[in-house]
Every structure is written in structure tokens, then in C-alpha cells.
# Entry
Amino acid sequence: MTTQNTDLPTEDRTIRLAEHLAFSRSFQPLFNEGMSLVDETAVYLDGAGRVEAKAMSKAGATLYAAESMRLTTRLMQVASWLLLQRAANQGDMSRAQVEAEKVKVRLEGLGSARESPQYAELPETFRHIVERAVKLERRIAMLDREIYGEASRREGWPNTNPVGEQINLLKTAFNG
# Structure
């Protein structure tokens, strides 16, 4: 007969499903999804995306360039987080090492130009990739908060969006 130790505080006995996911074989599909999206995005931006961007208006091409920078930055942050989790999952890094390295990863720090009037001008394939990347980033950020707590939200990061600031500067420069 097994007995449960009731002397422990309730929070010490809580099973964290997100942590279990990130440190188990169930993590592999999430890892594969993220890395596949990184690869798909690179292929698109270097191929069809480049061709489609050349056919856009000046305003649309500028928005495309800005949004593609946000997209690649977002995906690199997601990939960094996934690689850290995989290293922990495979025993290459301890949780403490992951937490120390994870401070360099910034999730949900970038906005999107979806509210821009020119957003509809962007190629449909590109918009679809952006939407998938944003959804994946949100899922991973939620998983990160479940595993590491709200402290994982960077207190030292500025609340401003540097890419957005650059876009505003460009708009001002071009009277847009």
C-alpha cells in the first residue's frame, strides 16, 4: 500500500502538465513544428517571397520588408527556446542552465503590422506564415510561463518595439 505524504504544501505536489510536456517525448512534435516553420519561412523568403515583393507598391514593399524582419526575429526567438528545451529534454543541459540561457530569449516582444492598411497587399502565403508564427510564439510563450513562471517575462526589456519605432521613422521620412 502506498501512502501519500500530506505534509508537503499543495503547490509542491502539483503536477505541471506544461513542464511535463517540455521535458518529455511529447515535446518532439512542437519542436518539429517550430523548426519546420523556420525552414519553410527561409525557403519562402529566399524564393517566392522575394519575387512577390518586387511586384508590390513601394509602401507594400516597405511593409513587407519590416514584417519579414519581425517574422525572422520572432522565429529565431522561438527556435532558440525550442533548442534550449530540447537540450534540457535530452539531458544536455540542466533546468538551471536552461533558465540562465533563456534570459536571452524574448517571446511575444514583437508586434505585427496587421492593422496597417497595406497589410492586405502582402502576399497571402506570407500573411499565412506570419499568422502561424504568431500563434506558435503565443503557444510557446504560454508554455514558458507555465514552466518558468511569470518571472520569465523580461523585466529588463523595454516596453517599446524597436522595429515599430523604425517603421514610424520611415513613415515620417516619407510623409506617410
Q: What stands out?
A: Residues 58-89 form the longest helix (32 residues). The chain has eight helices and no strands.
